């Protein structure tokens, strides 16, 4: 299990390409290179992460289902004793994708389903008809039952500030945990007047829960401050060349000195301002990890509602 807080949870961007056109995705402004992870890079970093006991989540600024090796890599990670999750969206769940995803047996699938209000959903996800998205979500729910953990996440925007109770009830009635997160500007990169208005969290970034408890790795193996860095300049090293402890030391020094990346200065990600429970040592097993992140989520939600 992880010896380093920053590697309790790792977001691995196996591809930063995507065919969807979500309104709130700043992917078009990406200036770092686009591509998909090679087998060599995957092997080099996944061995280190499985040894460390990190929860690896295929996510990032792209669609992990666009990678041709995605299902094989999930199986490999599970086969070598690793824990792996994946974030997917309804636009990519067509044809045979959902059955193949469930058969690969990730520990958990997170389905991003922005809103249950048809007009808002279709504004946020142009190109994905709401009825089709709901049908795909239902198919995934049925396939996952008893086989794979599934949770669903939505987005609270200026248009649906009051949606979260009805949203969570809808999915809960089907036995699926869900939560809505406050829309934010992905490091100052989102522009969507009327849908998202930027909050001001000031200049202090030392408490950023995303930086402290998660590590973000690009398809090239680069470790960035987080996935909101579209330029690749908030670089902490490359995990193919470096050891986990080297990156962790850099992160922890930066937390003490204050994170000074440009992307952080214009960030209004709710986790940036989090004040999560501080335990002495990182969670040592799956149960402790689940409890830790559940506590953090609750605390962050209360903090956001009070702000
Ligand atoms: S599915 Fe994800 S990566 Fe693709 S456009 Fe939407 S938010 Fe961006
Ligand atoms: S402050 Fe914002 S941009 Fe910086 S690491 Fe945290 S979430 Fe990412």
Automatic annotation (TrEMBL):
SUPFAM superfamilies given in the database record: Radical SAM enzymes
4Fe4S-binding SPASM domain location: 208-267
Cofactors, names only: [4Fe-4S] cluster
Keyword annotations from UniProtKB, A to Z: Iron, Iron-sulfur, Metal-binding, S-adenosyl-L-methionine
Residue ranges of domain Radical SAM core in the record: 12-168
Record carries keyword Nucleotide-binding: no
Statement: the UniProt record of this protein carries the keyword Iron-sulfur: yes
One GO molecular-function entry: catalytic activity
Protein known as: Uncharacterized protein
Name of the gene: moaA_3
């Amino acid at each position: 299990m992880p010896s380093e807080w920053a590697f309790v949870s790792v977001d691995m961007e196996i591809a930063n390409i995507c065919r969807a056109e979500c309104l709130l995705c700043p992917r078009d402004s990406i200036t770092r290179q686009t591509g998909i992870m090679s087998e060599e890079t995957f092997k080099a970093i996944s061995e280190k992460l499985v040894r460390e006991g990190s929860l690896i989540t295929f996510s990032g600024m792209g669609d992990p289902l666009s990678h041709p090796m995605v299902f094989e890599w999930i199986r490999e990670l599970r086969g070598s004793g690793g824990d792996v999750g994946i974030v997917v969206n309804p636009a990519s769940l067509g044809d045979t994708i959902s059955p193949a995803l469930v058969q690969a047996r990730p520990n958990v699938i997170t389905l991003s389903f922005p809103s249950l209000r048809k007009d808002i959903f279709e504004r946020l996800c142009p190109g994905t008809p709401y009825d089709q998205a709901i049908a795909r979500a239902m198919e995934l729910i049925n396939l996952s039952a008893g086989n794979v953990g599934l949770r669903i996440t939505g987005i609270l925007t200026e248009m649906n500030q009051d949606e979260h109770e009805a949203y969570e009830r809808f999915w809960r009635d089907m036995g699926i945990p869900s939560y809505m997160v406050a829309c934010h500007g992905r490091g100052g990169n989102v522009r969507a007047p009327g849908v998202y208005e930027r909050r001001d969290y000031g200049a202090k970034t030392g408490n950023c829960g995303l930086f402290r408890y998660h590590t973000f790795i690009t398809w090239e193996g680069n470790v960035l401050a987080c996935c909101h860095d579209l330029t690749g300049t908030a670089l902490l090293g490359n995990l193919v060349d470096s050891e986990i402890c080297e990156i962790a030391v850099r992160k922890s020094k930066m937390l003490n000195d204050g994170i000074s990346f440009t992307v952080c200065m214009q960030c209004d990600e709710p986790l940036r301002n989090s004040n999560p429970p501080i335990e002495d040592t990182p969670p040592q097993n799956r149960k402790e990890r689940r409890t830790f992140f559940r506590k953090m989520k609750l605390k962050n939600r209360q903090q956001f509602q009070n702000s």
